[in-house]
């Protein structure tokens, strides 16, 4: 059974940085995708970044392009979301999600989710 566990959330001032981690266990597919989403109360989950496990290709939402980077450690067990130049609009609960197929920045495509980690950005 695949499990995802996020960590690294917290409070930061505008302009600061945070690195979120997503530890993946039980994932036996040779390809697939891991993506990061974020969600504010009462709003839909927004796709932030994705990483194709097979090709290494990445994709980003326009709102985070250049400022965020999704990477994976060499062992393949942990995926990171490095967030820089944070602003109050980035504050949300961040989730990582996985699927066995291609990457999409749309939550409906994913059926494996972590519990989320909260990011607060003060101005």
Written account of the structure:
The protein has 123 residues and is mainly β. It is globular and about 40 Å long. It has no helices and eleven strands. Helix content is 0%, strand content 50%. Strands 2, 4, 5, 6, 9, 10 and 11 form a seven-stranded mixed sheet that branches. Strands 1-3-8-7 form a four-stranded antiparallel sheet, with no helix packed on it.
Any descriptors?
123 residues, 50% strand
Our Rg estimate from Cα atoms comes to: 13 Å
Give the N-terminus to C-terminus distance in angstroms: 41 Å
Main sheet specs: 7 strands, mixed
* Dominant shape: globular
SS content category:
mainly beta
Helix count equals: 0
Percentage of residues in DSSP E strands: over 45%
Q: SSE string, helix = H, strand = E? A: EEEEEEEEEEE
Parts with pLDDT < 50 across at least 5 consecutive residues: none
Relative helix content? under 10%
Number of strands: 11
Mean pLDDT: 95
């Amino acid at each position: 059974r695949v499990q995802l566990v996020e960590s690294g959330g917290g409070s930061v001032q505008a302009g600061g940085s945070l690195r979120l981690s997503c530890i993946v266990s039980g994932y036996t597919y040779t390809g697939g995708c891991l993506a990061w989403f974020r969600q504010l109360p009462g709003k839909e989950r927004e796709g932030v970044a994705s990483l194709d496990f097979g090709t290494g290709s990445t994709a980003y939402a326009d709102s985070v392009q250049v400022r965020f980077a999704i990477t994976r450690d060499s062992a393949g067990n942990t995926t990171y979301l490095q967030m820089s130049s944070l602003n109050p609009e980035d504050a949300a609960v961040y989730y990582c999600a996985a699927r066995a197929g291609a990457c999409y920045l749309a939550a409906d495509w994913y059926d494996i989710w972590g519990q989320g980690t909260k990011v607060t950005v003060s101005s």
